[in-house]
Amino acid sequence: MRMRLLIGMAGALWLGAIACSRGRSGAEPQLAAGDLTPGAAQATAGGVVPGISPQVVLGPVRNPYANSSAAAATGRSLFTGFNCSGCHSGYAGGGMGPNLRDSLWIYGNEDAQLFSTIAEGRPYGMPAWGGRITDDQIWMIVTYLRTLGTSHEPVKPPVPSRTRVRASPDLARSQ
After folding, report:
1. Which domains does the chain carry?
2. In the prediction, which pLDDT does 109 show?
């Protein structure tokens, strides 16, 4: 009985090894720096090479709502409505998530890269919204993000008040 079990296990392992190596030519496709074209990127397993711009895979990508003040206002509403402000703060100044008002963008600040970040998510907290909201909604959020810190921003953050803190008279007397 034990012998049959051992032979069965050995056979299963052998079949598994054969199945894993089937279809493998021995070398994974490699891309040189000059080969970063849509066709070359499609040749890799899965079609996407980590660390490249979305335009390499998708070709030229254009925001259909670029420079639209109405889309920026809708994007602002979506930003707050989908609780992006929960991580990035109400005016995208940063909190648990990064500041979106500055020029430091880890994954790129082109429209296609912003779309990719929102749609696909990023490690360490940014969820993927691509399956939850429409492409048009993502583009409107990108349009809103483009207005941050400009005169076209739909709702500007409040200016911090410069109130002067005075020492209480009781505190001054006790010293």
Report:
1. 69-147 (1.10.760.10)
2. 86
